[in-house]
Queue: 2 jobs
Job 1
Amino acid sequence: MTLNRSYIVGNWKMNGALADGAVLDAIEAGIAEQSGVDVALCPPATLIAAFAQKAKAIGIGAQDCHAAPSGAHTGCLSAPMLKEAGARFAIVGHSERRAGQGESNTDVAAKAQALFNAGLGAILCVGETLAERDAGNAIAFVTQQLAESLPISAAPDWLTVAYEPVWAIGTGRVPQDADIAAMHAALRVTLVERVGEGGQSIRILYGGSVNPANAAQILVLTDVGGALVGGASLKAETFLPIVAAAAR
Ligand code: PEP
């Protein structure tokens, strides 16, 4: 991982079927001409093995993992299992899991550490609610969330951070450029405090309603190392222009 390369990651959430391998093919064909950008997709777990077998240039990741390597955890998937299926990394701490499954910062740190232990990368998500932003607490809240969610082994070669304001996910609303830049700068400080100088080269992605119309403007902001993309990653027509905007 290097800050010289941008990183565009699609999160398909609970969408997609085997037939959508055609979308993967179209994205791969489209990124062949782009340079300076790493591209990854996180399909639902049911598609990881099939997509990992097909994918050549696109890294396939999972959307979550359990903190334990195995055990009595019905319905869950461990980091070693995801690795065996072909995942290279997983998202942890997405706000939809923090809110929907009650995941705490401690849970997220344990999941990220489990990924490291299995030899996988992690994309660790943080972000404030609208209430926290309106109260003027966004930076304090998100930097504390990151500090408490970072695993012991945090390091630039396997960890990516994603700043995703909860109120911007799937809503079409995006923070002001200055607010994104201020948050990324604050997260950088937190990373350096926790990891040392290595924290300078951990990529910090922005996520929340990124689309072909706004990607270029967001991706040039200082300390924005790429984007985590939900809805616009489901179709090659909307994902590829975002990748093109990140190409260097
Ligand atoms: C997400 O869920 O990570 C996300 C950024 O979604 P969207 O792009 O649809 O806002």
Job 2
Amino acid sequence: MTANGPWWRDAVIYQVYPRSFADANGDGIGDLPGVISRLPYLAELGVDAIWLNPFYPSPQADAGYDVADYRDVEPLFGTLADADALIASAHAAGIKVIVDVVPNHTSSAHAWFRAALAGDEAARARYIFRPGAGDAPPNGWQSMFGGPAWTRVDDGSWYLHLFDTAQPDLDWTNPEVVAEFEDVLRFWLDRGVDGFRIDVAHGLRKDPALAELPETLDRNLPLHVAQPGHPFWDRDEVHEIWRGWRKVLDAYPGDRAMVAEAWVLDFARLGRYLRPDELHTAFNFAFLVAPWDARAFRTAIDDTLDGLALVGAPATWVLSNHDVVRHATRYGGGAQGQARARAAALLMLALPGGAYLYQGEELGLEEVLDIPDHLRQDPNFIRTNGAERGRDGCRVPIPWSGTTPPFGFSPTASAGTPWLPQPASWATRTAEAEHGDPDSMLSLYRAALDLRKERLGEGELEWLSAPGDPVLCFRRTPGNLICAINLGTSPAPLHPRVAGAEPLLASGPLTGDGHLPADTAVWFAS
Ligand code: NOJ
Ligand code: CA
């Protein structure tokens, strides 16, 4: 409920992973007509916008993050006319549309890379081809998916791919690359999209000297997280690109916005992406990775608000996405995971700024841990021979209705089975089953989103709890709402200001004795 600010400063944005959302034509793979068919569900849920993962032509070596043509739609997912219809239908339902743009790398099936391999020098100069050292690659950089980040081609040279071999990195010092992507942005802006999610926004510029990773790096951090002195993550030169993109968006009417996927956990550094002439928002991965611990959450919240205030950017909050283990599972799974996921939703949706929901979290879906190896498709699983289980477990198709798979994901009469198997236990987690149940996760999300719309958006957060207290309690203005969440292991006293009050919404049963049970969150009017 930002009074005058643009929508993106406090939007609730629902992430649609098209491959797993809804399958209209019955081949077992979600598609754009499927998304259109479920827009009424999203409107009723009460989200402001959807972000669609890549649906462009792609060999699907990395589920569409290997783009072969940035200006069309992958036939598995539909047609360009379907994309236009989706944008129009979403807008008619009052939902904005953000599309994914993947600028760090193309697919190896992209016309540019094919031309590069065929010996076209201009095309080759758009990628990072280098001679090796004898039979060894140019340096020791490792792919995020395991194994070397270099692959050798027929003429003996090597090309860089920070991800899969089928995802060659572009050379962003080449003005043709810069011009091409600004034109791709215009292509989708002209079709009416409201914004872009930018893949690997911290990685486009590499150290020209291709220096090895310095000894000083903390090897306990995941490979994709930026650290000082890193030869390819979060280099200062990357900001030139975002200043150029901002000019492109600013030339369009309406409030078009960009969100950075930048694994930069230090908010002073992350804020640099959100300077007034760069990107609008960034995913808050420091919040996402916080363990179930009051100090960890409080630190993440304070660091976010303090760090982003310096550049005047709004905060965003996120618990899950298509790359991480679903949070109901991360927080312990089973009944404990559900209780905590319910509480975390009320915490996240009470914080100032915007929030991202990942499809299925509103149903309380958990990570699917028992996908048979032969059905797994994540290159992270394949390139590590299964040592890394990969991300398929959070990408299982959504259960909509009915009591047996495909749970309404595909039409019942179709021959197709969902591209990943759905657990039989999801019979109780379908949108249909949860719709009529006032105690379901879906009902909690709907109630929270309704209240949020009335009361919350950007604004101030004032801590009522003391640092170190296992209960986090804060007051929000405007909106006059108090949120309390118990991250401890036993019931704890509620703040005197709300101890006797009637709650607006609670994530679980309350005892009514002025205490808040563990793993529970509650909202009060103040
Ligand atoms: C981040 C995306 O979210 C992930 O799914 C993908 O594998 C990598 N970037 C590479 O594009
Ligand atoms: Ca389909």
